Fold:
Amino acid sequence: MTKQLPHDEYIAAVADALTAAGLHPADAFTDDSDTSGSHFYLRAVITLDDSSGIPATRWRHGLILIWEWHTGIEAADGEPERGPSWEWARLVDEHGQCGEREALTAIGYASPAYVVESVRALIERRNQSTPAERWERADGLDAACEAWGIEETSERPEKCPECGATRFDFAPNHCDGISQGHAWLCTGCKWGQWLTA
Structure:
């Protein structure tokens, strides 16, 4: 079974909006990738090629749209700050190799319609004609990405001190009747280790 990721629904909505606008993605996927093999980040890639309805005269091999959400842990080392971003890159061959990535004019949690407008402006070499617009479910998406980021960057206990189990579930905003917050819960006895900021 494929693991559900926080941004799956958002990227599907963007792909659907592109399709409805006559820009049919040749490919679209979401994953959780890693930077230098140490810290994971959320990523989505949407490919628009000559079968997607973009002019092949200017975009011979097409372009890709990249959405990423970073934890910000490695920002001091040149990696992106915490949060979402949209970028694009020109495809340089039929094997999916791309040129240098550039910022797309869409905000990180842009509405799918605004992403479409940003792509149209890029393809048509014109300025953005509509004001930035956030997705109506951006707050829920942001909360899900933040919970994923906390789970990714926090220390999971090695062993439960109560029952000795070694399996834990991450519980964002767990409430035990007294305290509430992000916690690791033992899958055996439900002992919890609260996370501190």
In short: The beta strands are 27-35, 39-48, 63-70, 83-90, 102-103, 168-175, 180-186, 192-194.
